[in-house]
Write a structure and sequence with these properties.
mainly beta, Nuclear Transport Factor 2, Chain: A, Glucose Permease (Domain IIA), five-stranded antiparallel beta sheet, 4 helices, 19 strands, 13% helix, globular
Length: 340
């Protein structure tokens, strides 16, 4: 905004306005439309529901509005056979990058993209494109997808239950697990769960009751499952650490944090994938890393070997609506597809 003549003082006021918290929280691939007019600088973006947010800035003041734009959702279909990697094969088939990212996330719960993918695997995707006044503004959600991996076909359908969008297999099972495999993306394990490990600082045999992930200081740490924070405090051994209780049966611990994310405190509810803190080296730590523990009924368990349960499946009330949707979307894919 400075490039458009907005003063640092005005930018600071915008950043401190709670109503604009989501508006200014940008992610990779988010698009801002900025226009300089006689009425001031106009900044537009579409929110997660594709409502148009408009921020007008003039003479140090600003006005924020939410508008319902003339949106049109058009269903698109893409299919391809994997010939090298999933990503490059999808790009060759003109699958948008954001849709490919969603596809990788959805099937990533069950398919290891390093070891499981085979040349000849087939992918079919039904997704939405969002248009405003005839102009493409965003790729929407995947509505349904089929992935044939090593001869086994997996079909998923998007369905909203209790206000949460998830993806389910045709037998009503949620593809999402109750816990993420790791609390840090693309981090290497620097120390495994080991009841007989020699402590690197204390130089004594001391059980290592978790898994350590090497990462740079400040790397975001995510809650691996929905839950309630039991502790968010400091101890001499764990440093800054967070305990989260899940379903009154499981507890996860995140230790040696550099600091906590905003709103993280005892009693706060967190969602799976939410950033709760940042990698550090507080407490008894030789360098920046995350120490992650997984407890079941109060007992330490090797986080790497835990078989996480699936998230909530389709309930009995929604089953008939879901089955109808499965039939409709499966028929669309079958009728359009040219890959057998």
């Amino acid at each position: 905004m400075i490039d458009f003549g907005v003063s640092p003082r005005t930018i600071s006021k915008i950043a401190q306005d709670r109503k604009l918290k989501k508006f200014i929280s940008l992610r990779v691939n988010d698009v801002l439309y900025i226009t300089s007019t006689a009425n001031g600088l106009i900044v537009k973006r579409f929110d997660e529901n594709f409502f148009l947010d408009v921020l007008t800035i003039k003479n140090g003041d600003f006005i924020f509005e939410k508008k319902r734009d003339n949106l049109e959702r058009i269903v698109q279909f893409r299919e391809f056979v994997i010939s090298d990697s999933l990503y490059s094969s999808g790009k060759k088939a003109n699958v948008p990058e954001s849709v490919l990212g969603d596809l990788i996330y959805i099937f990533g719960w069950d398919i290891d993209y390093v070891y499981d993918i085979r040349n000849g695997d087939k992918v079919k995707i039904l997704y939405e494109d969002i248009f405003s006044n005839g102009k493409l503004v965003s790729n929407g959600d995947i509505l349904a997808a089929e992935f044939t991996n090593k001869g086994t076909e997996i079909t998923v359908i998007r369905f909203t239950q209790r206000g949460r969008k998830d993806y389910y297999t045709i037998d009503s099972s949620n593809v999402r697990k109750a816990f993420l495999q790791t609390p840090i993306e693309f981090a290497r394990i620097s120390s495994h769960y080991n009841p007989n490990r020699k402590h690197p600082i204390l130089n004594t045999i001391r059980a290592h009751k978790g898994t350590d992930y090497a990462a740079k200081t400040g790397t975001p740490v995510k809650a691996t499952g929905d839950g309630v924070i039991k502790n968010a405090q400091y101890s001499s051994s764990y440093g800054n650490y967070i305990d989260i209780v899940h379903f009154n049966k499981y507890m996860t611990r995140y230790a040696h944090l550099n600091g906590f994310a905003n709103g993280i405190r005892k009693g706060a509810k967190v969602k799976q994938g939410q950033t709760i803190g940042y990698v550090g080296s507080t407490g008894l730590a030789t360098g920046p890393h995350l120490h992650y523990e997984f407890h079941i009924d109060g007992k330490h368990t090797d986080p790497v070997k835990v078989e996480p349960p699936n998230a909530q499946s389709i309930n009995s009330y929604n089953k008939k609506y879901f089955d109808k949707l499965v039939k409709e979307r499966s028929e669309i894919i079958s009728n359009i597809s040219s890959i057998q």
